[in-house]
Amino acid sequence: MMHKNDSSYGDLHRELETMKENQNQLFLMLNGAFIFSMQCGFAFLEAGSVRSKNTVNILMKNVLDLGIGAVAFWGFGYGFAYGDPGNGFIGFGQFFTSGVSIKPVVHHDHNTTFLVSDPHGFHAAWFFQYVFAATAATIVSGAMAERTQFYAYIAYSFVITGFVYPTVAHWVWSSDGWLSSGAGTGLHMQDFAGSAAVHLCGGTAAFVGSKILGPRAGRFSKTGTPKSIDGHSVASMSLGAFMLMVGFLAFNGGSKQSITESGDGAEMSLAVMNTVLGGAVSSLVATAINKIYHMYTTGLGHWSLPMAINGALIGMVSMCAGCNDIEPWAAVLIGFIAGSSFLFARLLVVKLKVDDPVDAVAVHFCGGLIGTILTPIFAIRGQSDGYGHPVGGVVYGGGVLAWSGLGWNLLGAICIILWTGSLCSVLFYALMRFGFLRIPSHVEIAGIDQHEHGDVMYPDIVIKNEQISMEFDNNRNVTSITTTTEGVNPNNLSTPPPPFEAWAKSNEAKPPGTMVD
Hints:
Strand order of the largest sheet: 1-2
Order of helices and strands: HHHEEHHHHHHHHHHHHEEH
Structural class: mainly alpha
Number of strands: 4
Helix content: 55-70%
Strand content: 5-15%
Radius of gyration: 25 Å
Distance between the termini: 98 Å
CATH topology of the largest domain: Ammonium transporter fold
Shape: globular
CATH class of the largest domain: Mainly Alpha
């Protein structure tokens, strides 16, 4: 009788463990699917932020982000990030899923066959980590929009998802990564959902790429005065922003990566609530500060929709590091700081002559840095002592360990910036040196869509009567473009106009300041 009861208990235990494993894998897959859909949010946001003549190009890049990222992360990225064996610097295993097996198993009771992966849950983990890598690469495409060659995009997307970001992910999240394990210090980096690993990494790459690439034609005058180049659709921007906000709930809440142990649900729920609060407060504060700033500097203070959007996004980015380990009041405070910082980060980027059409640097770099620094200050648990007991952050616990945790996060942020910045500098300078980074000026003026893709976003209204005046610098680079446009219905034209790209190329060599035909 005892043997029978023991056997029943063993069967029940195995069934329970199987159910928990399946639930955890389903949890990863569902949250990963929502994060996957953030690519659609990025696509709409970036498409609305650029001019209509470059919309197909930016949408194409977002579509291929998923394809290039999947191949790169399958081949190299996952192995560098989480491969076994690994050391403090990098992983080295499971390249092209080598060493991962899928075995058919026959159920002893029901005579049915099912599949088991070894290691368990590998494919769910791969998918969840892949969508994080794709997010890091997408940040860069928006910042370099409207003047980047397609070959350059393919190259940097592959390198970032295949090597640059995975190395950072290994440092921060792998059990043997030096920032995660503490490298003998007993500390660990607090970055629950990637303020540093994803957003600071992507924001740094975006800054370096935009700086080396140079601004769009007409973005700055000869004297360096910035000139606004507005996107073509705030409706598209808004739709993309809403999709990103929904995705951030899975991005942060799903980073718990399990839902079957005691406390998992509470921690996930706290992360989601803090993400909502941080984004909401940041949006309100950024919008208000922008209105007040422009009211006093120009006399015209508007309630800006783009500021409300980017304010929400920087707030949610700042939540990624500690959303699971801070009180809601701390989320509100961090969101307030993030929203207050956004306008000034944006102005600093412009001051540095960096042209970022979607404000990716201000949102992701600044938001990621704020979250990385403030999380150890407001953490509930924070670092652990020698007995595994949490000591709290600077506010809750204080003491040497709490301050050391803040220093460790700051060190991690600095190393991520240096690593990403140095590698991306080499990559983008090489692309520039060999002529693969920037599109020709006549293509930039005409629009990338027709030249690169043979397509346009709005074919019914693409034909226009335009008078365009261009100014050039001493190196014959376009510095200013002035257009006077009147829309024309193509059906009423007796003689179709020449292709716009041919027009732009024929006028490119005219002397500076000439009014072109």
